[in-house]
Specification:
- With about 90 residues, the protein is α+β, with helices and mostly antiparallel strands.
- The chain has 3 helices and 6 strands, in the order ββαααββββ.
- The protein has one domain.
- The radius of gyration is 17 Å and the shape is globular.
- The two termini are about 25 Å apart.
- The relative contact order is 0.18.
């Protein structure tokens, strides 16, 4: 799934065009480091995602979200908390 950002260009009180700015990758399309993948697996097991959210590991992996302005950081929802994972595998809530 891609999230497409659009901006409305307004000239002389008329909307002239909609400009496509770019695509953000999400989920399994995101490229992550081996350390991020290990941290993600740890979070999956630690937060008991299979039992609590009824998601397989692959489904959980597909919920990864990018962080605007931080190209290497990814965010994952673990039930009641969002956790960021750095390229070095450090987890931050």
């Amino acid at each position: 799934m891609h999230i497409i950002l659009y901006i409305l260009i307004n000239t002389e009180k008329k909307i002239m065009t909609i400009k496509k700015l770019g695509l953000l990758k999400t989920g399994a399309e995101l490229k992550i480091t081996r350390l991020q993948a290990e941290a993600l697996k740890h979070l999956y097991n630690w937060h008991k995602i299979k039992d609590r959210l009824n998601l397989s590991y692959l489904q959980f992996r597909r919920t990864l979200q990018p962080v605007l302005g931080c190209d290497d950081l990814v965010m994952i929802y673990c039930g009641n908390i969002w956790i960021g994972i750095t390229p070095e595998g450090h987890r931050h809530s």
